[in-house]
Amino acid sequence: MPEVDRAAAGRAAIAARRARAAVKDAVHRRERRALDVAETAWGDASTPEGTLRVRELLQSIPGMGPTRVARAMDELGIADAKRVGGLGARQREKLRAWLESREGGPHVRSRLVVLAGPTAVGKGTVSSYIRENYPEVLLSVSATTRPPRPGEVDGRHYYFVDDETFDRMIEQGEFLEYATVHNASRYGTPRPPIDAALATGRSVLLEIDLQGARAVKKAMPEALLVFLLPPTWEELVRRLTGRGTESAAEQARRLETAKVELAAQDEFDVKIVNHDVGRAAQEVVELLAVPGTPSARTRS
Ligand code: 5GP
């Protein structure tokens, strides 16, 4: 091979490897399902999906370590070096069935779950717990005009934006919903990442205030609304007034707000009692796992 051709071939090989790495990364981050990757490969074997090795595809699925992958390849009767696009019809069917049973077939719906509840019930704590302990859950990152608190990371906890940027996002139709919370800062749920996730079969969790939850239900009636309840009214009072730094008038105002907010619970599809952060978080995560079983809806 002449020198120039060899250099070009080298560059093409590098580009192809990068493209395959991007595919694996998307599967790993659950932005794409392995099944979608396989279907793309079978539509065109020359795509990055098509030239990806089956073993690499399976390894990129969250929770699939090398031992599990080896066992699966063995069960499926697929040779170690085989590429996804190079599988024969029988092997494709076997792999499709295997991936469907693991990732959920076309019958499984992705779902938008909205977590709301009265002030001080602890929904922020529950969503932080989910962020830390269930990295596979896609938690929507809101935009806000409030300044970051210590430890908050831009792009992870919120997108911290100024008023002009927030206005521009409204104008450009970027938000699924937005609201002014506690008469102070503005908060909004960016829509594009949610649409993208749902389109690829992933569920998304939003932790927003009550007015936001109502607005989402209007815009997307298929969303599942979850109301987080305090174990008792007394416990909510304790949490609301706990710090004791507010005036009596302020405390009375907060309790009044909490009563109004609690009255909204019947607008919600599911109620979860926040006895314990870990347990409440687990119940929310279970709801994201789809499909909508009747038992999940009666939990209260
Ligand atoms: P914090 O400033 O303490 O993080 O949140 C204050 C309140 O804003 C919480 O009740 C939270 O649920 C709500 N919130 C956060 N993001 C959004 C959003 O995108 N939209 C709406 N409507 N509320 C939000």
Would you write up a description of this structure?
- The chain is an alpha/beta fold.
- It has 14 helices and nine strands.
- The chain has a five-stranded parallel beta sheet with strand order 2-7-1-8-9, sandwiched between helices.
- Helix 7 packs across helix 13 and helix 11 runs antiparallel to helix 12.
- The structure holds guanosine-5'-monophosphate.
- Guanosine-5'-monophosphate (5GP) binds next to strand 5, strand 6 and helix 10.
Mean pLDDT over all positions = 89
- Structural class determined from secondary elements: alpha/beta
User: Could you tell me the number of beta strands?
Assistant: 9
Q: Which shape, going by the Cα principal axes? A: elongated
Strand content of the residues, in percent?
5-15%
Number of helices: 14
Strand order in the sheet with the most strands = 2-7-1-8-9
- Estimated radius of gyration: 24 Å
Low-confidence stretches: 291-300
What is the ordering of alpha helices and beta strands?
A: HHHHHHEHEEEHEEHEHEHHEHH
Query: Can you summarize the main beta sheet?
Result: 5 strands, parallel
Helix share of residues?
40-55%
Bound compounds, each kind once, are: guanosine-5'-monophosphate
> What is the end-to-end distance?
70 Å
